[in-house]
Amino acid sequence: MAERGFFRLQINGTPIEDYASLSSIPALDELNINDVDAARFIPYLEGVEVHRLSACNAFTDRSELDSNALFAVFIRSHPQLKELWIPWNQGITDLTPLLELDELEYVWVSFDMEQAIASLDGQDVTFTFEIEGQ
């Protein structure tokens, strides 16, 4: 558990059939979910407060659902987000939904997310934006 009493949950490539139990968690200080298609878990996080998301390659167009649309739904459903670590998510080409988050402090992406990085060019970014692997 984190210092504020919220949970930290890590799921890395774990073969889980149903993510519905995520909806029973009231708040997550950190969700670390890697090698899992975002379309499988995002619907169950709508009412869950999430402060930090680490989701390597979750938004890589593995499903029929558009990664940008999934990403925007997640962002808009979690206005309390403070940190995002989302490298290797080439399916995300638009990071502008992040501009709606007043609490956002840090965002990490990977160098190979060129379109996503370019989507913030000229924008008034109020968070620290890091590009890994340069």
Distance between the termini: 33 Å
Instruction: List low-confidence stretches.
Output: none
Number of helices: 3
Rg measurement, Å? 14 Å
| SSE string, helices as H and strands as E | EEHEEHEEHE
How many strand elements? 7
Quote the average pLDDT. Answer: 90
Shape: globular
Tell me roughly what share of residues is in helical segments: 10-25%
**Major beta sheet, specifics?**
7 strands, parallel
Describe the structure.
This protein is α/β, with parallel strands linked by helices. Helices cover 15% and strands 24% of the residues. The protein has helices spanning 38-41, 67-77, 114-118, and strands at 7-12, 27-34, 49-50, 52-54, 83-85, 106-110, 128-132. Strands 1, 2, 3, 4, 5, 6 and 7 form a seven-stranded parallel beta sheet that branches. β2, α1 and β3 (49-50) form a beta-alpha-beta unit.
Give a brief rundown of this model.
By secondary structure, the chain is an alpha/beta fold. Helix 3 links the parallel strand 6 and strand 7.
Features:
134 residues; alpha/beta; 7-stranded parallel β-sheet; 7 strands
Task: Outline the fold blueprint.
Elements: E1 7-12, E2 27-34, H1 38-41, E3 49-50, E4 52-54, H2 67-77, E5 83-85, E6 106-110, H3 114-118, E7 128-132
